[in-house]
């Protein structure tokens, strides 16, 4: 993408009312914001997308070189732009993902201002939203926040006490093993990013020390098919958040670790350990040059395997109930067990030259002046519709279903939010007509 801001197009549904006023302002130019624009253009609603950097920049700038999708390509179903390649059950690599998104950007042709940071959104007493940005002030009848939920990297304060010669980076900054100094690498966190980065380093022959967290895992393939295919048939991806056993608590869950690398496979941390990767429990502190870990490695590995086997057992039940002809199932048996819980590691003896922090992000919606946030800064909403009239969210994990923060479910969410926007427009138009009469 160009480093210059896109100009606002002049097609149907894109021109504002003048003086910086639009019917809808969309904050964020990732797949969520572009999906909202797609449906607004279809409905002929004037709007503008405001993007802090460049369209879909996260996919271009915050992914490592060997990154690939962990869900099969057929799940890429952005609105009006389903995957059309010749490998629906494969996993697009980084460059292929960017090419897919470039095609979506060209198809949507959204009215957008790039390099435009929004610093404040506030609903005035007259019901109009005032939006302050680095490129001036705008107003809108309604606002859609499509900036995602992963804003501020989590790095613990203990990082400040690490020796200056140890290179530190967050998962969004990691690119490849060659970019790190020679020596061992400590990867902190075993969610999707942590497990895959640890694998990337391990496959490159680097010495890896992995602080294992509570992330679950799942199989890549089971009983002759991708597990995602089975779960789709079981309608798991259509389950709304209110019907999930954890209800809204599922939004706090760490994603299951698995990979689409080399055609897709399990990530088995026990196998990595048998091959030389050093596993510890959760990293808790650094004191006097010694890293301290929780004595929970065995429990974390066991819990991840229990989830793995539980998902497979649910597939077994589905196959049996529907009399499906499929290869026989099995139960995962651990290929490695920790001899004991190691809770300390002296940095001076470890050979660690770099640390990659893979413990997630926190949301930052401090620029939104609206009474919709809970104590953790997460917005209250129902399918993206907040209690504050005219304010919406889209693109958040489990906004409605598992696919809400992914390519697979964003179209359904965006369409629902735009339908709510249109209903509010009709309501206001009717009110104005009644007053005029």
List keywords for this structure.
FAD/NAD(P)-binding domain, single chain, globular, alpha/beta, 8-stranded mixed beta sheet, 5-stranded parallel beta sheet
- CATH architectural category of the largest domain: 3-Layer(bba) Sandwich
- Structural domain tally: 2
Indicate the mean pLDDT.
92
Low-confidence stretches: 1-13
CATH uppermost class of the largest domain: Alpha Beta
The helix-and-strand class reads alpha/beta
* CATH topology type of the largest domain: FAD/NAD(P)-binding domain
The span between the termini is: 50 Å
* CATH 4th-level superfamily of the largest domain: FAD/NAD(P)-binding domain
Largest sheet: 8 strands, mixed
InterPro entries: Auxin_biosynth/cation_transpt, CHP04046_FMN-dependent, FAD/NAD-bd_sf
Organism: Paraburkholderia phenazinium
Protein name: Putative flavoprotein involved in K+ transport
GO molecular function, one term: flavin adenine dinucleotide binding
Describe this structure in words.
The protein has 437 residues and is an alpha/beta fold. It folds into two domains: 21-151 and 363-436, 3-Layer(bba) Sandwich (FAD/NAD(P)-binding domain), CATH 3.50.50.60; 154-357, FAD/NAD(P)-binding domain, CATH 3.50.50.60. The protein has nine helices and 22 strands. It has helices spanning 31-42, 57-61, 94-108, 192-203, 227-233, 269-274, 297-321, 347-350, 410-436; strands spanning 21-27, 47-50, 77-78, 81-82, 112-113, 118-123, 129-133, 136-145, 152-153, 167-170, 184-188, 208-211, 221-222, 225-226, 278-280, 283-287, 290-293, 344-346, 352-357, 361-362, 368-369, 391-393. The strands form six sheets. Strands 1, 2, 5, 6, 7, 8, 21 and 22 form an eight-stranded mixed beta sheet that branches. A five-stranded parallel beta sheet has the order 10-19-11-12-15. A hairpin with a 2-residue loop joins strand 16 (283-287) and strand 17. The chain is globular, with a radius of gyration of 24 Å. The model is unreliable at 1-13 (pLDDT under 50). One of its GO terms (molecular function) is flavin adenine dinucleotide binding.
